[in-house]
Every structure is written in C-alpha cells, then in structure tokens.
Design goal:
- This protein is mainly α and 298 residues long.
- The protein has two domains: 1-155, no CATH class; 159-298, no CATH class.
- The protein has helices spanning 3-14, 18-48, 54-74, 79-104, 110-128, 131-151, 158-179, 187-210, 218-238, 241-261, 266-296.
- The longest helix is centred in the first third of the chain and has 31 residues, at 18-48.
C-alpha cells in the first residue's frame, strides 16, 4: 500500500476533524444537560415528596412529558435533538408510571409496570428510529420478560426461560444485521446487540452444563451452535472481527465450563488454566491475522 493511500485512510477513517469534534461536543453537552434536567426533576420529587399533593405530582410529570414530546416534534428539522427529547420523554414516562402506582397503590407488580412502560413508548420508538432509544426499548422488553417469568410464569423451567429469551434476542440480532444491508445503522448499536445475544447464548449453555440439564437443554445447545455458525459466516462475509472475537470467546467459555464441570482433582484445574492461556493466545493471534489480511485487501 502506497504512503499516499495510508495517509488518505488515516485522514478519512482514523483522525477526527474539527467539525466532527464540534458536532460531538454540541450534542454531547445537550444530552448531558437534558440528563441533568431529568435528574434534577427526580431529586425534586425525592426531596419534596411528602409536601406535594398527588395531583401536583402527576400534573408536573404529565406536563413535562407533553412538553418534551411537543418540543421533539417541533424540532423535527434537527433529527438528533428531536430524538434526544423523545428519549427523555420515554424515561419520564417510566417515572410517571412509577409515581402513579405509588400514589394509588394499584397493587401491580414490577412486570405490569415494565409492560405498561414498554407498550406506552413503543410508538415513539418506531417513529424516532433512534438507536439509543431502540436500545432502551429492547432492554425494557428483556426486563419485562424477566419479570414475567419471576412473578407470573413461576412454574417455567430454566430451559423454557432460556429458550424464549434466546429466540427473542437472536431474532432481534438477525433483524438488525439484515436491516443493516438496506439502512444505515450505527456500528456501536450492532456491537451492543450482538454482544448481548452472544452473552445470553453463552450463559444459557453454561447454565445447562453446570446444572446437569443436558436433555432439557439439548435444543438450546443446537440453537446456540447454529446461531454462532451463522454469525461467523456473516462476520467473514462482512469482515467483522468483533463478531468473530465474541463468538469464539463464548465457545472458549463454554469449553472451560465443560472442563470445570468434570473436575475431579487439581489436575483438571491445571489443564483448564493451560487451555485458557492457549485458547486466548490463539484467539488474539487469529484476530491480528484477520485484521492484517482484511486491511491489506482494502
């Protein structure tokens, strides 16, 4: 590769321009300011809680939600500002639901709270198409499902819990990777989604191994293996080192759990330590090799 090409790549892909810093600082300071505003509202309620009438509590929160949404709609010419305001309104909606439940003692559990919060903001998420808001929405869905299994479906087995959890997050990851081919999606958002899906799959397999539930978890093992293979196929096709590193790390963790489960004496722990050092070193070597290979082809 010529020096001119290297310099061009560094200028375009690595070095940050002044306009990029201005863009970042402008909206970063805006986000911090709105965050402090939301935090100040929360502390205001916490400090003056006993002195406020219940209608005042609900009225202030409803007023803030409405004003924030209207401000977000009014600033549609600045998409980032509009999306940040809608995200703040989403958080305030959760606070509103919490305050309502506390004032009237509805008897609803945490599952009902998160379910109502998720459904209430779903339209805003679809309209805004903002990655941080989507991430919050996916987190709300996962929390709602977790609370459902702990408070409603208490008789579900661990295999059923993990199966639905994996199907949910694997589907979300597959949809995001598919839409990436047609729409512009932030790289950090893809990394977070894939990392969580791989982490969930790895934890599910390790849970089945450590608790000796191989028969119930057999389909989950196959599902996770198939998902890992598809992710690696996609990563090689798209030259995505991040996904390869995560999936191989998950496989290493699973194999280590197999060794530890069968540990009968100290020799197994010694072999596990040797395997960990060798596998992590090999993974680093592979990542460096792929990075150099794919970089040279550009």
């Amino acid at each position: 590769m010529q020096n001119e090409q290297i310099n061009w790549l560094l200028d375009e892909k690595v070095y940050t321009k002044p306009k990029d810093w201005y863009f970042f600082l402008n909206y970063f300071s805006l986000s911090i300011g709105l965050g402090f505003l939301a935090t100040g509202i929360l502390f205001f309620f916490a400090y003056n809680w006993q002195d406020l009438h219940k209608f005042v509590k609900l009225g202030i929160l409803e007023f803030l939600v409405v004003v924030t949404i209207l401000a977000g709609l009014y600033s549609h010419k600045k998409p980032i500002l509009s999306n940040i305001l809608i995200t703040v309104a989403t958080l305030l909606t959760g606070v509103l639901f919490a305050v309502f439940g506390q004032i009237y003692q509805t008897g609803a559990n945490a599952y009902d709270f998160f379910k109502g919060w998720t459904f209430a903001v779903s339209l805003w998420v679809l309209v805004s198409n903002f990655e941080p808001l989507w991430l919050l929405f996916i987190a709300l869905i996962n929390i709602t499902y977790f609370m459902f299994t702990k408070q409603i479906a208490t008789d579900w087995s661990d295999s059923t819990y993990f199966l639905i959890l994996l199907l949910l997050n694997f589907s979300v990851t597959g949809m995001v990777l598919f839409l990436k081919q047609k729409f512009q999606i932030a790289t950090w958002f893809i990394k977070v989604i894939t990392a969580y899906a791989i982490l969930a799959g790895t934890i599910a397999v390790i849970s089945g191994i450590m608790h000796r539930k191989s028969e119930n978890f057999l389909f989950i093992y196959m599902l996770v293996l198939g998902f890992y293979l598809l992710l690696n196929w996609y990563a090689v096709k798209q030259k995505n080192i991040w996904i390869i590193a995560l999936t191989l790390s998950g496989m290493i963790a699973i194999f280590i759990s197999l060794l530890l489960k069968r540990a009968a004496d100290s020799s197994i722990f010694f072999l596990t330590g040797i395997f960990t050092v060798i596998s992590v070193t090999a993974l680093i070597k592979l990542i460096l090799f792929l990075q150099n290979k794919w970089y040279d082809k550009r």
